Amino acid sequence: MMKTQMSWFGVIPAAATLITAFATPTGAQDAQQSRSPFQEAYDAAKRNYTGGYSPGPPVQFEALDFPAAREGFRRALGLAATDAEKAEAVLGMGRAFLSDVNAIDDAAARGDVRADYARALALKAISPEQRADAHLGTAETYLGDRSYGAAREVCARAREASGEPALAARAQMLLARCYLQERNYSEAQKEFRKLLEMEGLERQMKWEAEALLGAIPLVPLIRTDHPRLFFNAETWPAVKERALTAERALFDQMKARVDALSIDDTRAGNFGVQAMEAAFVYRVTGDRSVLEKVRRMLRATVDAFLENRPEDSRAYPRVAWAAALDWVWNDLPTPERESLADAMTHYAAIRIAEGKVHVRGQITAWPHYYVGSMFAYAGIVLLDPAADDVAYARAVQVLAFGLKHHQERFSYLIGASGDDGVWQTNIEYDLTEVPNAVWGFLYAWQPATGLEMPKEWSIVGVSPNMALRMMIGMGPKYYKHFNYGGHSNGAWGWGQVYSSALYAHLGHYVNLFGQSHPEEAAIAQYLRQRMVETGAGPSEGVYPVFQFLMTGSEQAPAPVLPPGLPVARYFGSIGLVLMSSGFGPDDTYALFSQGGGASLAAPQGRRLCDYDATHFTIYKKGFLALDTGVRFALPHSPNYRHQTVAHNAVLIHMPGEQFPRTVTGPAIANTGGQNRYPVDAVPLAFETERLFAYTAVDATPVYNEAKCARMVRQFLFLPPDHFVVFDRVVSTKAEYPKTWLLHTANEPMIAGREFRSDQDQGRLFCRTLYPLDAVLEKIGGPGKEFWADGRNWPITDAFQEPGVGNWWKRFGHGETEPVEAMGRWRVEVKPGAARAEDCFLHLIQASDQTVEKMVESRTSETADQVQLAFAVGARSYAISLN
What we know:
Distance between the termini: 38 Å
CATH topology of the largest domain: Beta-galactosidase, Chain A, domain 5
Number of helices: 27
CATH class of the largest domain: Mainly Beta
CATH architecture of the largest domain: Distorted Sandwich
Strand content: 15-25%
Strand order of the largest sheet: 13-14-15-16-26-20-19-18
Number of strands: 29
Helix content: 25-40%
Radius of gyration: 31 Å
């Protein structure tokens, strides 16, 4: 039975994002037109508080500045003309103070804010909602004082002042947090459950309550001794032994890096990863001089975090810092250890506070490999029962938010991957950086909690089976892929990506799941061996220390592909069929966009990007039939890359048709393609045997019903090198022209109803068999590479900076024009006369460039069938198509 939701101790429904909003000051609604000085000052302060947002393009989010917000609200207070405006300004000052972790720890400042709230409560003409809000702010200051009775008493006053649902929910949340901070977990659980039973709960508050409630049962399971992040006292001996035996060469390299690091060079900056390596070396060697370097790097790095100095927004140095502190915890003087832990707790609390109030509402979103993904690791390390109540409650919150992020992410991936265990579509992300965010959590789970890793987690990192079929070539430090961009605004267009990450991902899979999934692990081993042979490997990944954790690798299966792998696999969860004649450098590979799919329909669906149902890509010793265009280029991406015209599919042109807004912006071109995503296409058939693979899809639902009455594609692969593509297309009007597309890297050479095109060492032949009156035309070359709707859509502007023309400078890898894998030509096949109903039948042959001529073929018709026959060597094919 497939699970669609998962939590640590039970099913917890997922929550969406809340954008925190300020109330509009009472009596100020009518001032929206005139905008009084008070309103202008108030809005400016609010912008400092929430960060501000400009929809662009380009989209811009302004940084938070709580001190500036407090001063802004104070200026607004001086301009307030009514009690309501005065109260709202004071409430704004209070919100900015309570969100400012740097300010709220000051007891005297908390007293001053309480006095401000008291003055607001003394105003006569304030609303019940403002009165309740002031009481809740006062209660928050009492939490900072550890005055739990006073906090609960003021919460009760807030309830009495107003029964407004949002304020009542805030009061309930504060009451639950009061018990949580007091470490009265049974009462905290009761109050959180009451909160979650309230109707109309704001989504961010619901998410936070679920996170804290879900963490309470897990907190007692976190080990109280150190180390506990990635290994513990019981597992450390095996980790150390691996470092000194199987991975001795890597350990010696790491030790050499640590030895070469001068202690004088560690006074300032971000040394997170270096501290992690040094802490590991210290644990192995016991060298006190290395410990001194770790101490220096821990202090310098956390200071840099607090000053917001690191340029890298990824979580890696923060996770590494947490591991380093954990591994030397027992060897640090208590005051120093507490100071470092307090500093990181403070930093994590700042990131959470900012995430909760930022206009993006980003705290509830999966943080991928960015800073927010550090929370689970920091929480594991910082959870110190000896800490004071405030620090301990913050550590619980940090842990809770990190657990919630991973719980929701894993639940989504498990549900989206279906029976295939696959959710990945965009290779340039899903097989590179995306899995980095989960391997650490998998390695952290059992050492910290003592709990076995759920078997369902095997799919959250990488699918070796899918990687095998997506990797169509390898070379030094890279591998090639289909250039298919199913999400994240599409592919970059290079057709290859760095290989170091995938080599490490496959190794982690073998270590963690080699025993439970031996066939997939064998595929992973095979791929890693090939990567080493071709120079695409080896590598250690973003955390080289993880190589020492891989104590299960010794029982890994042999690097041999399982026997009997099929010619094709239909990964229904992502709506793709992947085919190949084998898995070597001389084989033929194909991708087909079948549509449908569990992960496509999910709320975070993977392929809500390109209108590309029925598209196919073919590779043999080169990119032969291409997926074209690039991401992050305006106006190129919305008007070309995401549209059907950029893919090998069929266009039906209806004058005046308007297309939906894309993920990168509005589409202004009428390119004649699909207007719904592949999820709405209907898979009709899939079959794979030793001598063929066959798939069919009804793409009618993804076209505008006003122009398309029927569009069905059948796609047949006859290994090693031949394809048959049969399309039945019915337009609602004969005058709506149909166009069959095949994109090539280089200029195709057309001879009658046949053409060929080369790329790298490969060659593609294509013969149009139907319609009988077909007209072939090639389009492309300089100035027409991405031609659509009567103009070219060149790659000129960066998504973030429209108009500056710097795409190639930012993303061009040193190139100044479209590389071949991006596509620069296409052949268009059109019927010779206007008809409502047409059939397109094509025979395609892939080869190397020693082949000069395409195979001969013949066709015939019966009353209800088209028959195609041809022979390749000793094998003859006879194909009947309805």
